[in-house]
Write a structure and sequence with these properties.
The protein has 235 residues and is mostly helical. The protein contains 10 helices and no strands.
C-alpha cells in the first residue's frame, strides 16, 4: 500500500515539471528587448498624451508585453485580442464597480463576464483580466474617471503597445500581426490533411489551444515531411 502511495506521489510530482519550450535562439534576447522598449515607449507616450503618470496606467500592459514580444504568433496576442479584450474588460470592470458594492463579488463577476464576452467576440486576451481588476481595485483615481478609464488610459495604452509591437516585430523580421502561410508540400503516402480536418480535431479536443489552426496544420505537414525524409535516409 505504501509503495502504491509513493508511486502515485512521484507520478503527481512528475506532472509539475516545466514543459520543455522550443525557443528560436535569437528570441532569448529579442523578446526581453522588445518588451522593455514597448513598455518604455508606451509609458512615455502615455505620459505625453495624458499629461500625468501613474503606475497603474500601464500595469496590465506588462502582461500584454509578454504575449506581444515573446509569443507574437499567439492568437491571444493579435491586435484585435489586445485592443478588443482590454476595452471589453475595462468597460465590464467599471460597470461592475458602479453596480456592485462588494469588491470581491465585483471582481469575480467582472473577470468572468469579461472572459465570456472576449470568447464570444474572438478577442480573448489573458492580461485583460488584470484590466478588469484595475477598473475595480484601482482606487479613487479610477473611480473618478468612470467610463473615461476605458478610453484613457486603457485604449491609449493598448493602441500604443500594439503599434510599438508592430514596428519592433517588423524590424526583427517577425510576422506580426501573424498571418500563417500554408505549408505547400503534400505527403501522398500519409494522406492529405486539410485545414477542415484540423478544425474538426480541435473541436473534438474540447480544450482551447493557444495556436492558430493553420499554424498547427503547417506543423503537422512539416512533421510528416521530416519523417518522410528520415525514412528515405534509413537503410
Amino acid at each position: 500500500m505504501q509503495n502504491t502511495q509513493i508511486k502515485y506521489l512521484i507520478s503527481l510530482l512528475s506532472k509539475l515539471r516545466p514543459h520543455p519550450m522550443i525557443i528560436y535562439p535569437p528570441d532569448y534576447w529579442l523578446s526581453p528587448l522588445g518588451a522593455a522598449l514597448g513598455l518604455i515607449g508606451t509609458a512615455y507616450l502615455s505620459h505625453l498624451l495624458l499629461s500625468d503618470f501613474n503606475p497603474w496606467f500601464i500595469a496590465p500592459m506588462g502582461a500584454s508585453a509578454v504575449l506581444l514580444f515573446a509569443v507574437p504568433a499567439s492568437p491571444l496576442a493579435q491586435p484585435w485580442s489586445v485592443i478588443g479584450g482590454n476595452l471589453i474588460a475595462a468597460a465590464v470592470g467599471i460597470t461592475c464597480a458602479k453596480l456592485i458594492a462588494t469588491p470581491i463579488l465585483a471582481v469575480a463577476l467582472a473577470v468572468s463576464l469579461a472572459i465570456a464576452f472576449m470568447m464570444r467576440l474572438r478577442c480573448l486576451h489573458p492580461p485583460s483580466g488584470a484590466v478588469a481588476l484595475t477598473a475595480i481595485l484601482g482606487g479613487p483615481q479610477v473611480s473618478e474617471l468612470g467610463y473615461q478609464f476605458v478610453l484613457s488610459p486603457v485604449l491609449i495604452n493598448s493602441l500604443l503597445l500594439v503599434m510599438l509591437a508592430i514596428i519592433f516585430n517588423l524590424l526583427a523580421k517577425r510576422d506580426y500581426p501573424h498571418h500563417p502561410k500554408t505549408f505547400q508540400k503534400s505527403i501522398k503516402d500519409l494522406g492529405e490533411i486539410t485545414l477542415e480536418d484540423v478544425e474538426k480535431a480541435l473541436r473534438l479536443h474540447h480544450e482551447l489551444l493557444d495556436i492558430d489552426e493553420t499554424d498547427l496544420l503547417n506543423i503537422v505537414k512539416q512533421t510528416e515531411q521530416i519523417a518522410k525524409d528520415r525514412r528515405k535516409r534509413q537503410p
